[in-house]
Amino acid sequence: MAYKGLQAIKSDLGAEVNNQEATGSQKLDAMRSYAQDGYTLVFGHGFEYNDPAAELGPAFPDTFFVTSSGGKTGPNVGAFRFYLEQGFYLAGYTAGLMTKTGKVAMIGGDRVPSIASTFKAFAAGAKAARPDVVVIEKFTGNGQDVAAAKQATLAAIGEGADFVIHQANAAAQGVFDACKEKNVKAFGANLDQNSNESGVILASAIINAEPAFVALAKDVKEGKYKGEVRLTGMAEKSIDYVFNPAMVDQIPVEIQEKIETERARILSGDLAVPKDEF
Hints:
Order of helices and strands: HHEHEEHEHEHEHEEHEEH
Strand order of the largest sheet: 5-4-6-7-8-10
Radius of gyration: 19 Å
Strand content: 15-25%
């Protein structure tokens, strides 16, 4: 997702781009290296990059450090606040309308504020559709551990969940595999995962990174950017909730209409989906 945003900056603005994966103590070093090499804009994709960005900002005033989520800012330090909660709310609303057991589940990898906030939105959507719904939440502590994600999902299904959403990053396949094994429906997250080979994904709550990345990079290029947290959501086309075309016929028309009504309320501003501030 972030890579697509980076490539859009390259194609739309003619920028020289580079990227790498960096975890743990590598985060600070990687971001520092890009600044030392003269890069004007350095993105850290995830809440966990916000602290390193805030630390490096004062030392490299000619480089802008921007993270996808996070609340720390400075003159050259900022963050995207993708309003993914809007998509998660609609997924929860769908699950609440369609659950037969009255129980739905959320499976997370790392327990970080951005993930916790999307889970609260999913639960809010489920309860808006069905106030007595039980929302099961499980974290594995590792967004890379496919086996742990599968076991957590199987446990949630064992407790009665018949719809599952995830924030498990690379470990999402474990969630989908468990759902396939137990004939339970799942939701994709962050990316459009509707075509996953498991065949269990009813819809996906997705981030369209390209418009937000390009708009921010353009502001940096034109000298207009100031460190801030930018909230970008469905109205800006940065967030969407997309039904799986191969499974949409399994959603009764009257339920689809209710979901579209909620979508319209979000877009009009009549419905402010709950989100944490962090």
